[in-house]
Amino acid sequence: MINLTVNGKHVQVPEGVTVAAAVLRAGQTAFRLSVSGEPRAPLCGMGVCFECRVTLDGQPHARSCQIVVREGMEVRT
Amino acid sequence: MGHLAIMDDSEAQFALTSYSQSLWRELASELPQEAEYLPCGALWVAADAEEMEEVHRRYHFYSGRGIPAEVLDSHQLAEAEPHLRPGLAGGLRMPADSVCYPPCAATHLLTGISVLFGRTVSAISDAGVEFDDNTSLAAPLIVLAAGSAIRRLIPAAEVFPRKGHLLITDRYPGFLHHQLIELGYLKSAHSTVSDSVAFNVQPRQTGQILIGSSRQYGVETDTVERPMLERMLSRAVEYMPDLAGLSALRAWTGFRAATPDKLPLIGLAPGFTHVYLATGHEGLGISTSLATARLLADQILGRESAIPSAPYNPCRSFVH
After folding, report:
1. CA-CA distance, B275 to B135, in Å (whole number)?
2. Do B170 and A60 touch (CB under 8 A)?
């Protein structure tokens, strides 16, 4: 199992799953806010729609559906 | 790019840019939010001692003319823009420079004016314009503001297209605080023969960052050229290494309208009695747009202008 945090909350997920899956496992459904402030979440799941973006280890705009979890990752939505 | 800048290439350029900046400042309060008027100031970045000399020269030039300017040392520069690479010599801050989003500012200025879009003018005369579908429009007075395309209508005008690339990033609020331009930009902008790139980045209110700039002569196609884009971005990353970690949304190109003496053509077109020109502004079209309009209105109405208009008289830049 892999341990990471989502908005400071500890979450444990199986190896090989995406960051997007970990965010959902943490109970977080809004991944980001649109320009007008509306909540957004993964739509395409294949890196095209950019709706799944999160801040990953301090780096904004990471596409969570395209990145596999690693131990100790810090995710912010 | 929407930089509302003061430049001092020549006294005439200084007069036009500083006059125009004061007009932008007056207009700012009535601009809609979408015009993104952002009084962020500009910072000219000096890489070495030689460029620092240029910083001091310009500081004295501006101070002597009542324009606010501020010299920053290496430490103050790093503090003002933490993402710049360490070890730069310093910079010149121009606190009165600002930026805007030109398409929305233009839309605001066009309020109440009817505009014909999607028509191509194929010929122009003192009586009006002809379109390529063989229709025409009579007009008592014409202002031709077609940028570098002016030669398709008036071949004698010495205005040449100078291609530039731009790239815009995703939103990174707080990453960049000023419009940043390397002082070497002047060398790039001055070269009238070779292709060049210069570090030039601009913050938008959205947190997006516009990255420029490139200059090319003799290229007529508007496609994004990968080698030129790479050169431009490498230059930007040399100055701001962290730019390399940001996501880009889009890159595109445009054509500046360049003249041999680097001053615009504002005034009556040689050989015409009712056709006025507003072109040849190179990279300063947005900066100097309001002053250009005011100078033209003054000439047309026979009023006295706030600054001398003779340096921009189109006669000097026509093939005789």
Report:
1. 19
2. yes
Q: With contact defined as beta carbons under 8 Å apart, do A6 and A77 qualify?
A: yes
d(Cα A7, Cα A55) in Å, to the nearest integer? Answer: 10
CA distance B177 to chain A (A): 18
Instruction: Tell me the ipTM for this assembly.
Output: 0.72
Going by their DSSP bridges, the two strands A9-13 and A2-6 should be labelled as antiparallel
DSSP B238: H
Q: What proportions of chain A, in percent to the nearest 5, are helix, strand and coil?
A: 15, 35, 50
Chain A residues near residue B170 by CB distance under 8 angstroms: 60-61
Q: In terms of Cα–Cα distance, which of B169, B151, B281 is closest to B220?
A: B151
- The answer to whether the CB atoms of B170 and A61 lie below 8 A apart is yes
pLDDT digit string, tens, across residues B54-74: 999 999 999 999 999 999 999
Contact check, Cβ <8 Å, A35/B206: yes
pLDDT tens per residue across span B175-210: 999 999 999 876 666 666 678 999 999 999 989 999
Is the minimum CB–CB distance between A59 and chain B shorter than 8 Å? yes
Name the pTM for this structure.
0.89
What phi, psi does B209 have (nearest 5°)?
-125, 125
Q: For chain B, first and last CA: distance in Å?
A: 34
For residue B143, what are the β-bridge partners? B276
Q: Is B11 on the interface with A (CB under 8 A)?
A: no
Name every chain A residue with its beta carbon within 8 A of the beta carbon of B246.
61
Q: How far apart are CA B4 and CA B21, in angstroms?
A: 6
3-class DSSP state of B51 = helix
Alpha carbon distance B199, B233 (integer Å):
8
Q: Does B206 touch chain A (CB under 8 A)?
A: yes
Residues of chain A contacting residue B171, judged by C-beta atoms under 8 Å apart: 60-61
